[in-house]
Write a structure and sequence with these properties.
The protein has helices at about 15-25, 70, 75-90, 105-110, 125-140, 190-200, 290-305, 315-320, 355-375, 420-440; strands at about 1-10, 30, 55-60, 100, 115-120, 120-125, 145-150, 155-160, 165, 175-180, 205-215, 230-235, 240-250, 250-255, 260-265, 275-290, 315, 345-350, 385-390, 410. The chain is α+β, with helices and mostly antiparallel strands. It has two domains: about 1-95 and about 120-200 and about 395-440, FAD/NAD(P)-binding domain (3-Layer(bba) Sandwich); about 205-390, no CATH class. The strands form four sheets. Strands 5-12-13-16-11-19-17-18 form an eight-stranded mixed sheet. Strands 1, 2, 7, 8, 9, 10 and 20 form a seven-stranded mixed sheet that branches. A three-stranded antiparallel sheet has the order 3-6-4. The protein binds flavin-adenine dinucleotide (FAD). Flavin-adenine dinucleotide (FAD) binds near residues 11, 34, 55 and 184. Flavin-adenine dinucleotide binds next to helix 1, strand 3, strand 14 and helix 10.
Length: about 450
């Protein structure tokens, strides 16, 4: 039998930052992941680093990205995120500069035009630097604890002595005082099973869907004078839509998630040259009683657009506004020179035939309000791609310290339903890692 004081399940962002806090505590720790080590990974979701290998955009804010502040308090949440940033910088993250999106002049003007402005300080590592930082963290953690990969637990059981037994696929049984589950969204099915078996209830599930807009890069110049990007929220009838992942000079790229294809945004620094466009998604949230219902809604809409071949549908704003049918095909043959050229190959079509009205309405109303804010029309060549999605894990009931009703079992990061971002997931790891580093009683 392998005995450890703490077992972390999931070596994604939250798990790694919890491990980092525990590393110097002298506690015996094992970290398990169902994927592979960083340098052997081929999957972009699972393995050491989890989704931290993606765009690596760390937004340090309570305005969006989760509700960590509800557990820790407002100032403590910001402090934890500062601590995350200091750790990233210790492992080379400072190579990417920090910027902030707070602009009082823009906030005042935007509010007049009917927008809310969400602000943040941001360190955008990008994929290459994220990987380098994670590799250095791996090298350090390897010297302080055991890490086991391709090790998705088959059974977790609370034993009569108040400890836990965890059985791995290779037959190894781990005996542990405390468990931190940090399996993110990619562990959802597995985590649902554990919740059922351990008697932990799961709450409402959320899925955001929205169209990705690619517009002329200079159209937002008047509002991006003092900030690299901005995040606007807009309240319409029965929804509040929010911009997500704004990429000045960036590209729209294909995102493959759970077998579905969606248009995603890529930072300009990922390619040698930026584009002359700017893109963002306008997300509209939807809430469902269960995760299964949220998943079914998401799959139904995205897979109908994909048509079993990673198809992305798109339409020019001009024809969408006029309710005209778009000339179909991946190339808009014979068309005049367009002022916005697509950076992602897409099939031009009539989006009204493919996308629920809710998302078209929200996008058109948002762009109309944006025109008021800019004091100019949005170019009718602007491209609207269908459809981007963001899946959330259902909230589960935990204490202020992220402990479930099963004593000794903690749940952090996105699978807790409390965080939805790199910075807040990492900060929840720092928070719980610190608690367990200091609060475990010897022999308990
Ligand atoms: C395409 C994409 C891009 C994103 N970009 C950004 C961004 O730029 N900025 C931002 O703030 N947020 C971004 N997000 C959200 C962000 O990535 C997540 O909020 C964050 O990674 C959550 O961290 P986590 O530790 O909870 O989960 P993850 O980082 O997903 O890690 C979960 C880990 O658990 C492991 N695991 C899963 N199931 C099991 C199991 N049963 N047993 C053992 N191990 C398991 C996985 O292999 C993985 O390593 C993005 C999300 C997506 C999908």
């Amino acid at each position: 039998m392998n005995r450890y004081e703490i077992t972390i399940i999931g070596a994604g962002v939250s798990g790694i930052f919890a491990a980092h806090e525990l590393a110097a505590s002298g506690k015996s720790v094992i970290m398990l992941d169902k994927g592979k080590k960083l340098n052997e990974r081929s999957d972009s979701y699972i393995g050491f680093g989890g989704l931290g290998m993606s765009e690596g955009k760390y937004n340090y804010t309570n305005d969006f990205g989760g509700e960590l502040e509800r557990k820790t308090g407002y100032d403590a949440a910001l402090q934890l995120m500062d601590d995350v940033d200091a750790i990233l910088c210790r492992y080379g993250g400072s190579e990417a500069g920090m910027y902030h999106t707070y602009d009082p002049e823009l906030s005042a003007k935007a509010q007049e035009a009917g927008f809310g402005v969400l602000t943040t300080r941001t360190r955008h590592l990008g994929t290459r630097l994220s990987k380098a930082v994670l590799q250095k963290m791996y090298d350090y953690l390897e010297t302080c604890m055991t890490m086991k990969f391709e090790a998705e637990p088959e059974r977790i059981e609370k034993t009569d002595n108040g400890r836990f037994e965890i059985e791995l696929p290779d037959g190894t049984v781990i005996d542990t005082n405390r468990i931190i589950i940090a399996t993110g969204r990619s562990g959802n099915e597995w985590f649902s099973r554990q919740c059922d078996e351990l008697g932990i209830g799961r709450g409402e599930a959320r899925v955001d869907l929205g169209l990705r807009v690619e517009m002329r890069g200079n159209q937002l110049n008047s509002i991006l004078k003092n900030a690299f990007e901005t995040k606007l929220s807009f309240a319409g009838k029965g929804y509040t839509a929010t911009t997500y992942c704004m990429n000045p000079r960036g590209r729209v790229v294909l995102k493959l998630q759970e077998g579905l294809a969606m248009p995603d945004g890529q930072n300009y620094r990922e390619k040698e040259e930026g584009s002359s466009n700017l893109n963002f998604t306008l997300f509209v949230p939807n809430r469902f009683p269960t995760l299964e219902e949220a998943d079914a809604y998401f799959r139904d809409i995205v897979s109908r657009i994909n048509r079993n071949r990673n198809r992305i549908a798109a339409q020019r704003l001009g024809s969408l506004r006029q309710g005209m049918k778009e000339e179909t095909g991946s190339e808009e043959s014979g068309s005049r020179m367009r002022s916005v050229l697509p950076t992602l190959e897409a099939e031009f079509t009539d989006l009204r035939e493919e996308v629920p009205e809710r998302y078209l309405e929200a996008t058109l109303a948002f762009l109309e309000a944006l025109e008021k804010l800019l004091g100019e029309s949005i170019d009718e060549d602007t491209i609207v791609y269908a459809i981007d999605g963001k899946l959330y894990s259902p909230a589960i009931e935990t204490s202020q310290e992220f402990e479930t009703k099963v004593s000794g079992l903690f749940v952090i990061g996105d699978c807790s339903g409390t965080t939805h971002s790199l910075s807040q997931a990492a900060a929840s790891g720092v928070y719980v890692g610190r608690l367990l580093a200091g609060h475990l009683l010897a022999g308990n």
